[in-house]
Amino acid sequence: MKTSLVERALAIAAEAHKDQVRKEGSIPYIVHPVMVAWKLREAGFGDTVVAAALAHDILEDTEYPDWKLEEELGTEVMRVVRAVTNDDSLAWTDKKKRYIETVEEGGEDAWAVATADKIHNAESLLAAHARLGEALWDAFKASKEEKLWFEEAMLAMLRKNWSHPLVDEYAALVERMRAL
After folding, report:
1. pTM (predicted TM-score)
2. Each residue of 53-71: pLDDT tens digit?
3. Of the candidates 132, 7, 104, 113, the residue with the CA atom closest to the CA atom of residue 59
């Protein structure tokens, strides 16, 4: 039996992230791409976007070869994955500015994956802050102020380009993060 695009993406993501945990250290990393994909499926997005959500952190956070990922998931999934992948060769602020640019250039599928990613990241951050307090910020490469700058810049770009309920959900979470 042939596996679906989403099943292949999930299997690849599970293997690529198998030894990783989230920043707070207690949750297996694979939970994150699954939650991002689930949010997009619930919002009505198709298999290409859901598969890209499952694979969205593979290039950035693992040694999985990009050529192999493209061979297994196809050009369109890889176009989205590349659009939402940080360039870790850049300094943090430059990396985040470039990320916003590549997501903006990536079009609606990239906006969807990036927004769902940011939603889950914000939900995780808020939950971790409730447990850890200000010590949470030690897990990040940026200060609280820099993190908020990025979230607000990302939100501004999305609002400029895309009218979707996911953007409103993200905006509400950014507002909650401002209050921390």
Report:
1. 0.95
2. 999 999 999 999 999 999 9
3. 113
Length of the chain: 180
**3-class SS letters over the chain:** CCCCHHHHHHHHHHHHCCCCECCCCCCECCHHHHHHHHHHHHCCCCHHHHHHHHHCCHHHHCCCCHHHHHHHHCHHHHHHHHHCCCCCCCCHHHHHHHHHHHHHHHCHHHHHHHHHHHHHHHHHHHHHHHHHHHHHHHHCCCCHHHHHHHHHHHHHHHHHHCCCHHHHHHHHHHHHHHCC
Catalytic positions are 60-61
Q: pLDDT by residue (tens digit) across 67-112?
A: 999 999 999 999 999 999 999 999 999 999 999 999 999 999 999 9
Place of tokens 């039996």: 1
* CB distance 72 to 58 below 8 Å: no
What CATH number was assigned to the domain covering residues 5-178?
Answer: 1.10.3210.10
Dmax (CA) for the chain in angstroms is 51
